[in-house]
Design goal:
- The protein folds into two domains: 6-111, 3-Layer(aba) Sandwich (Cobalt-precorrin-4 Transmethylase, domain 1); 116-226, Tetrapyrrole methylase, C-terminal domain (Methyltransferase, Cobalt-precorrin-4 Transmethylase, Domain 2, 2-Layer Sandwich), CATH 3.30.950.
- It contains eight helices and ten strands.
- The chain has helices spanning 21-29, 38-47, 62-74, 95-103, 116-123, 141-152, 167-178, 201-210; strands at 6-9, 32-35, 53-56, 79-82, 108-111, 131-136, 157-162, 182-187, 195-200, 221-226.
- The chain has a five-stranded parallel beta sheet with strand order 3-2-4-1-5, with helices on both faces. Strands 6-7-10-8-9 form a five-stranded mixed beta sheet, sandwiched between helices.
- The radius of gyration is 20 Å and the shape is elongated.
- The relative contact order is 0.15.
Amino acid sequence: MEKGKLYVVATPIGNLGDITYRAVDTLKSVTFILAEDTRETKKLLDKYGIQTQTVSYRDQNHDKMFSQILEKLDMGLNLALVSDAGTPLISDPGYKLVSQLRSLNYEVISIPGPSAAISALSISGLPSDKFIFLGFLPKSETKRKNLVSKYLSLNNSVIVYESPNRLMRLLNLVKDNFGNISVFLAKDISKSREESIYGNIENVVSILNERHFNDNPHGEFVCIFHN
């Protein structure tokens, strides 16, 4: 019997209209959808009339779920993997699953679509021919500094994700260690409250201070730096 395939399906990062026809068709055709949060995924499925059953899959329950996933694939059933938003594995769950399936020679197929990092880079105005994506930085100040320093020195645009509560800390760390370099911030891409800020770090920090951002930090940020 031919083994089933795992489809890694990118879903919208904000506006639910940002999904490909192929992604919708795939989600309709598979037997089960492995979802980071079934409640979030249900909103997307309801919009497009997708009735495929969802199964909760996260890094935390990978060991428990893996044997069940293999069993379904060995039965010839096709599965899809989705995260809450964007492309799975890109700072989202899925690496353990894809890595182990690859090592066992199961077929894994990408259904491309949105990614917050690439979407932000494309409108940043910063160099996009060479870039490094670091995802979420470590919490340790020393580790954050060393990591950013390592890649800024290569003359790349450096892309990181940052929570609102640590955003100002990150901006000040970069300025204190690397000078008043260029930065682009984006949050809520493709949502009604989408916003981006571009300038040198001092200008961007000044804008955030004028808005009293520290009094009400909100939104997950894509931060892009270039030295």
